[in-house]
Amino acid sequence: MQREFYHILNRGVDKRIIYNDKRDYRRFIHDLFEFNDESNATANGYFFSQSLDIGCPKVKVRDERKLLLELHSFALMPNHYHLLVSPLVHDGIPRFMQKLNMGYAKYFNERNNRSGTLFQGKYKSVHIRNDRHFNFILYYIHFNPLDLKSLNWRDRKLRNPSEAFNYLETYPWSSHMDYLGKNNVPAVTQRKFFLDYFGGNKGYRKAFRQELNNFSIIDGENADITLE
User: Which domain holds residue 73?
Assistant: First the structure.
């Protein structure tokens, strides 16, 4: 199967919060790993390590695990998430997303003694069809946590790129740290394609920092790329 790239995103219904605390973020990351399997995986088959400073899940890798898709990157925000994926089987994305959204919603509702829909309808899937979109999408997903710190980055008016870089370097709920070579949740994503593209962790760091610097310059280079 030829590798195709899709930007997947979904929000909480009525833009509600879908992660109340670190436990919820950990659980969703755990589910990203657990449900990326052709078998009928169980959400309870793995365990969390409370000893990790960032509080992310520690997972055991099964030898027989068969991936539905390559999860290249992800970023979790309080009321939505972003994924960059490539299907490995013809129905890999819908199978994975059904397990992910239903599994996490079941956990969330049980924990919070609620019922009903958690997510805002069907997830949105954007097919990456051109080079400009491809060249920017990984940055965009990893830039998203800046919404919690500096909204003006979207207008290419970032005041302090170095400060923004330092913030993103410590944000635990995305795959960015693993791309930098800092082991956060390395078992969850398949990073080889993009690390080869950037020339390894150091190449990614250099390119990411340069792209972040560009967002302090109002040039509109990527203004016509529809990402959401």
Answer: 6-127
What is the spatial distance between Cα 215 and Cα 221, in angstroms, rounded to a whole number?
A: 10
Q: Same domain, yes or no, for 11 and 91?
A: yes
Contact between 10 and 81 under an 8 Å Cβ cutoff? The reply is: yes
Confidence of residue 48 (pLDDT cuts 50, 70, 90): very low
Contact 199/181 with Cβ under 8 angstroms? no
Whole-number Å distance between alpha carbons of 1 and 130: 19
Query: Are 107 and 165 in a shared domain?
Result: no
For residue 217, give every residue at least 6 positions away whose Cβ sits within 8 Å of its Cβ, in sequence order, or none.
Answer: 156
Same domain, 119 and 147: no
Tokens found for residue 46 = 């793995």
Domain count, the chain: 2
Quote the pTM value: 0.88
Is the pLDDT confidence value at 67 over 80? yes
Task: Name, in order, each residue with C-beta under 8 angstroms of 165's C-beta and a sequence gap of 6 or more.
Answer: 208, 209, 212
Q: Residue 58: is it exposed, middle or buried by C-beta count within 10 angstroms (0-12/13-18/19+)?
A: middle
Cβ neighbours for 203, distance < 8 A, ≥ 6 positions apart: 195
Q: How far apart are CA 113 and CA 123, in angstroms?
A: 24
Grade residue 40 by pLDDT with cuts at 50, 70 and 90.
confident
Helical H segments across 88-191, by residue range: 92-111, 131-143, 161-169, 176-179
| 110 against 59, higher pLDDT | 110
